[in-house]
Amino acid sequence: MASLSYVDLLKRDNIEVLLERIHNRTTMILGARDDGEVINLSGTIELNNVRHENLLIEDLREFLTHRTLSDSIQIETSDRRMLRVTKFFKDKSFGGVPGKSSGAGSERQEEGVIDAIVGCLGKSNNIASDHSLLPVTVTKLNYPRINLEYPKPIFIVDASKNEGLSDIGKEPYIDVKFTSNKGEVIGCSMKGMTSPSLAGGGLAGINTITPHLMPRLYTSVTNHLVSEGYHHGDIVDNKELPDMYLPVPLTDTRILIEGTKEMGGPVQFMYVGPMDVTYTFQRDFGQYNVDLNGKFYSVDEYMQKIPEFYFRVRKRDLDVDNRVQIDYYNLNKEGFPKLFTSPTTGKNNLRIAVVGKVPKTGKKLPL
Predict the structure, then answer these.
(1) Cα–Cα distance list, 180 to 153, 157, 186, 242 (Å)
(2) 12, exposed or middle or buried, with CB in 10 Å at 0-12, 13-18, 19+?
(3) pLDDT value of residue 70
(4) CA 275 to CA 192: how far, in whole Å?
(5) Residue 293 and residue 271: Cα distance in Å, rounded?
(6) Which residues pair with 313 in a beta bridge?
(7) CB under 8 Å to 163, separation ≥6 — which residues?
(8) % of the chain surpassing 90 pLDDT
(9) Which among 333, 339, 334 is positioned nearest to 241, based on CA atoms?
(10) Which end of the chain, N or C, is more open, meaning fewer C-beta atoms within 10 Å of its C-beta?
(11) Mean pLDDT over residues 195-224, rounded?
């Protein structure tokens, strides 16, 4: 058992987990043990005594990446105490086991949505004297509108996880599948409130969907590094290298959001909500509806919600000394230069995600 460290926060999706708890005013445990005081959060975080109520994941990552010994992060409690983030317990959600296999993070969200819908189906089925299957509706889960027609709800008869791996050997793009009363299988991708990636499925997924874009991205990033005077083999403090952002062409946005069959898609809906799912059931004239604390977006609605998308090139899983090595010659699994590697192990430190905005600390590059 242990308390959180700043190094912990830079691992996995721990920044997302932390910000989601703060933004949703949930709880954390004080101390280095799981039997410590349970603290209610106020929704505010302080970076060097500057208050933030809607801090972006990219901004906190930049702060942590360039943090010095004098920098501090404090979390405000519901009773207005300010506590250092390192005073809180490192629970399973922040642990070393990936969220998908540990039951934390996105896995918790997926199971929460499924349990809500299956539970509502159980109530609905008890209406009929023969316990026959009666479909339920879900708030905001409607067929895409055509012109100005009234939204038509999708009647759901089953909900389940999308198990297994995609054809490219990665987790499938569809996280949860719904079955309608018409026999349609509807794919949904689940996202947190501060998800580190909005679409694409990492380099492997992006290169599968839009193989014409990744050569352009790597060429642009490489040219930028060379123009800045970085040579192959240089070992650089990560503070010198801001995350880089390249615009996603509008013509490729939809396919990146939907995905393809090869990568375990396509999705018809995005669900955006807290990892801890809450819900209520309503019954109106014999029809049950599930109201979740998140929201469903069709692909069109998602594109309207986030009008601009960017490829974010960032570093991850850095050594303790926070340095990276420039590597133009060795290639990753997709056949592109690694660019950023660990000076001690040679491990690939570069990650690519799709995001919706560029923080002020980011570097914009052309694609």
Answers:
(1) 10, 6, 8, 46
(2) buried
(3) 81
(4) 6
(5) 10
(6) 244, 352
(7) none
(8) 38
(9) 339
(10) N
(11) 89
